[in-house]
Amino acid sequence: MLSQETINIIKSTVPVLEQHGKAITTVFYKNMFEAHPELLNVFNHVNQSQGRQQTALANAVYAAAANIDNLGAILPAVVQIAHKHKSLGITEDQYPIVGHHLLGAIKEVLGDAATPEIIEAWGEAYGVIADAFIGIEKEMYDEAEQLDGGWRTFKDFTIVNKVVESEVITSFYLEAADGKKLPAYKPGQYLTVRVNIPGENNTFNRQYSLSQASTGDVYRISVKREDEIEPYGKVSVFLHNHVNIGDTIEVSVPAGDFYLDTENTAPVTLISGGVGITPMMSMFETIAKDSPERPVAFLHSARTRKHQAFHERLVELNASMPDSAYDALYSEEGDGFITREFLAEHVLEGSDIYVCGPVPFMQAVISSLHDLGIPEEKVQFEFFGPAVQLELVNA
Hints:
The structure is a single chain. This protein is α/β, with parallel strands linked by helices and 395 residues long. It folds into three domains: 4-146, Globins (Globin-like); 154-252, Translation factors (Elongation Factor Tu (Ef-tu), domain 3, Beta Barrel); 268-382, Rossmann fold (3-Layer(aba) Sandwich), CATH 3.40.50.80. Helix content is 42%, strand content 18%.
């Protein structure tokens, strides 16, 4: 437990963190990687170069400070981050390294304003927060290992099929190299692929949604080739161009807190943009397989028909259910975008709503849903990469 004095000191730093949080986390990552270059094998270099990881950490530190007297308020965010850590194989012995460099960055950026009392209070607070993460992640690792066919961090998988789904998306079918059964996952969860790319100094880790209903013998991920805008996606390009049937890659246990509530019988509306279709495919297939009577609407937006994956499969699944609807819009073919008016017409009344896609897409869709009066608790969404603040505006 933190003392009231420590809580008061941490709370007093909230305005400073709001102003200087991004600068602190930028210095933090720079110093930590210089001292521990081996950690570059864990972190996404693209998110680092774009500043997304620094922003996400700054938001997390700010939230922790603002809620230091009620850490239960940020428990959902802690669990979400813990899922990411689990999928990356983060270990307990890495937390002291992070704490050392985070305190150092606070001191470096704030200078004399970071008094010994503030640094001591933040050291104490970090210890409490780190212990919470370590405890939650240990439970997750233990649970993953105890599943039928489960394992703790990474193990080898063989590519048993590779299917081109669209001009930009390719599916990879994965079987455990040891031949063991695969543990079930929740529809919407992801796994981490870990690869060594020739000519690169570090290992690369990327999370990809599982894009079909759980089968017990094969995992499927569907990867968009990110080669249109720099910095290019090194892992996605490597997978598309160089990983073939028979090759082996390392894969983590499925993780993630964005998944279909299969115990609920309420209607479901799935809304996706671009490659955000991947977790929705797992959800839609699961409904078709396990609860086909459940009302469901699948709403998708893609640039063109050539960019969209799984259209034929979606038509097939939609036809197999008595109370299902599937609609796709193509923004570069004159169909327009998923607007507030479109949502008002197509979102099922009283439905649980799941949204996934590029950040601007999610901002527009979720803003429209809020504007339509849909309760916040009815809308679940997933970021690909570090979470950012959604700037919701009236649609």
